[in-house]
Amino acid sequence: MSAPQLLSAYAGHWTGAGTGVTVIVPPEGTVGSGEVRGGAPATREFELLSPVRTVSTVSAVVLSGGSAFGLAAGDGVMEGLRKRGLGFATPLGPVPIVVGMSIFDASVAGTPPAYAAGKQALAAAFRGEPFEAGAVGAGAGATTGKWRQRLDPGGLGVARGSVGAASVVAVVVVNAWGDVLGPDGRPVFGPDAPPATPAASFGLNTTVGVLLTDARLDKNECFLLAQSGHTGYARAIHPAHSRYDGDAVVALATGDVADAGIDLLRAVAAETMASAIRDAVSHA
User: Fold this and answer.
1) Which CATH class is domain 9-282?
2) In DSSP terms, which residues pair with 174 in a beta bridge?
3) Using CA atoms, how far apart are residues 61 and 11, in angstroms rounded to an integer?
4) What span, in angstroms and rounded, lies between the C-alpha atoms of 259 and 277?
């Protein structure tokens, strides 16, 4: 899927050895909110996404490997956007609102993505390179099925849905404790039965996603849309939202399409997110 197909957003990857960074830069003025439901999140600027906070627009979302270390990739994106004059206007110049979400991958023990990786992912986004799915970008080191003491494939997935004139795109990095489920509700990898003794793996998992729509939504409606992204998690991952995961969703609305019904949009967003999760492992 190419960047123009991400509803006018710029999107790009930097892929390293078993880790990476994925950047989504929506059009200026894009409204955003988000929600965390997992027990072990690694996030940046997430409190700003609360519907009660003052800032309503988002300059970029950065998905990365490296757990909390990988959040440093957002610094490179923030600096790159400032040089382009993008961000929240202040008397001393623009301050880019860069939201970050990181997964735990093997780079935690080596060299996690940092400032330079964020800059390279941003440069790839603005070059308009094809936006690939699978073991690329932030999904390069992702795995699933760890509650079974397995390392089944994970990755980055993309899917698109529509409601009348409005569209919604889901981009998700699947690094789940549980299994990815197919449309039939059965695990894509492994047996149907749950493990007799699920393996504990604190801090080693997280599914992070972005819902991007061209509908005109306010910040509270974006929050509701993010909640529906978590519904998609629960449909395509089992178990989802465990205390071992850092599951989080950001919803972004560019505002190009007026009068898009939020409830129907939420229903489609849930299915689109579930489809993106399945797409992430279909490239294995």
Assistant:
1) alpha beta
2) 155, 207
3) 10
4) 28
Please report, for the chain, the start and end positions of each structural domain, with discontinuous segments joined by +: 9-282
Q: Where are the alpha helices (DSSP H) in the chain?
A: 67-70, 73-83, 115-127, 219-236, 262-282
Task: Please give the backbone phi and psi of residue 88, each rounded to the nearest 5 degrees, phi first.
Answer: -70, 125
Burial class (CB in 10 A: 0-12, 13-18, 19+), 116: middle
Burial classification of residue 74, based on how many CB atoms lie within 10 Å of its CB (0-12 exposed, 13-18 middle, 19 or more buried): buried
Dump pLDDT digits (tens) for 184-218: 999 999 899 999 899 988 778 999 999 999 999 99
* pLDDT digits 0-9 by tens, 52-69: 999 999 999 999 999 999
Over residues 123-161, the pLDDT tens digits come to 999 998 889 999 999 999 999 999 999 999 999 999 999
pTM over 0.70: yes
